[in-house]
UniProtKB/TrEMBL annotation:
GO terms for molecular function: lyase activity. Residues 64-356 form the Alginate lyase domain. Keywords: Lyase, Signal. The keyword Signal applies. GO terms for cellular component: periplasmic space. The lineage of its organism: Eukaryota, Fungi, Dikarya, Basidiomycota, Agaricomycotina. Residues 418-427 have a biased composition (Low complexity). Residues 1-20 form the signal peptide. This is Alginate lyase domain-containing protein. Residues 417-443 are annotated as: Disordered. It comes from Galerina marginata (strain CBS 339.88). Residues 428-443 have a biased composition (Polar residues).
Amino acid sequence: MRSTLLRFVTFVSILSTAVAQTAYANDFVDPDYILAKNFGAHTGRAQETVIAWARQLAVKGPWSVTSKPFAPPSGDKHDYLSWAPYWWPDCSGVGNTTTLTEQQIWVTCPYKSRDGQFNPDARLVNNVGDFQDFSEAVFYNSIAWALGTDDKATFEANAVRFLRTWFLDPDTKMTPHLKYAQVQRGPGSESGSHTGILDLKGVAKITTAILILRKGGSSAWTADLDKQMIAWTKEYTTWLESPTGIDESKATNNHGTFYYNQLAALKILANDLTGAKESTDAYFDGLYMDQIATNGDQPLESLRTRPYHYRAYNLAAMITNARLAKYADRSSTVWNKTTKTGGTIKSALDYAMTISASASNESRYASEIYPNIAAVASVHGDAEGKYLAFLKVAYPGVMIEPFILWNQPFAQNEASGVVSSPSPKVKQATSNSTSTGKNANTNSAIASRMRGVSTTLVLVSAGIPCVFASLF
């Protein structure tokens, strides 16, 4: 019974700090802020989640562009490949007399676009999913390393190993182009689309990670590796500024916004702050001017089949561009820049907050706006408390989310973010944390975001009576 109880206590301990790993649409975090480690005690739970996510993601790595079951049209496994996600086959006019195999469908049937309707077989080639997981893993492992935990050497090694595998090692590295990204399958389809550039939007997170390693003096991220990474970055940037990339830069909706996330981040990664400023200036003086209406709506996103999702999605990209601009030029004022009709990033958020996700049957996407709320509040303040109030109602356990860590100052007096007994593996910025217990709402929010865990099954496998499941 004693061993059973110990297993139960261990499980409860894990559950108490676990929250489902979520890929925020995009972000760039100032490495100087992370490395300064001047965090308030209210970010304690967010720090714990960063560490937990770093560990969760690391188990899945490393990732390589070469790990795909089908070769791109070039036949070179090092070339990135993805299939256009919203394109579906129409075999009605093919005239086949027998059932077509999947492979026959891909090259025989014409494909047609269905906006916002994801074709699940597009992930049979999952370079896009692998890159997302890779960018998340590098991002969180680098931040976890900077937090100065007992396991910092492991987090550092993870981040460097993942970067080397995807970008630098001869057997596994990616060719620096996206010629075969979001290929629209069908007869004669041999090349990708400029829309496929969106697949690598996570470059902004990777840039954050590398800057943390570089500026933090990582011994594992050597000068030679940094030099190789800069060379890869410059070659990819050259391709990104080719005609295909320029086509994507002209996309007036979120595609164009995310394009500039990549371009500016790459310039920063290559130590070209002037180029990064030019990139963000091009965005805020160009596409941005027509993206937000007087009332804060984003018309180009609201017209889509999933308007709630796309408003939050483009807003995340706008915020990322603003952060990149501020890093490249500390005097930047783009956070306050108005569009042609007087809209701002803040007004876009305020408008989006007035619309329920359920109004367009998008309840599953409700949380996508949460990081945006914290980001805007950290810049414009929350004097009336409306942003924190919104989050606490929508998600009472919000203080456990990693975005709380880098969206500061925000919610500084929120005790639910304080760790009552700081873990020896997390360095708290302040030592006078007040002792608080977790409330039921926080536990509920955390439990609802647990990934892939069946409490009953876990308890049973540990030899614990199922009656304990009711505790969760």
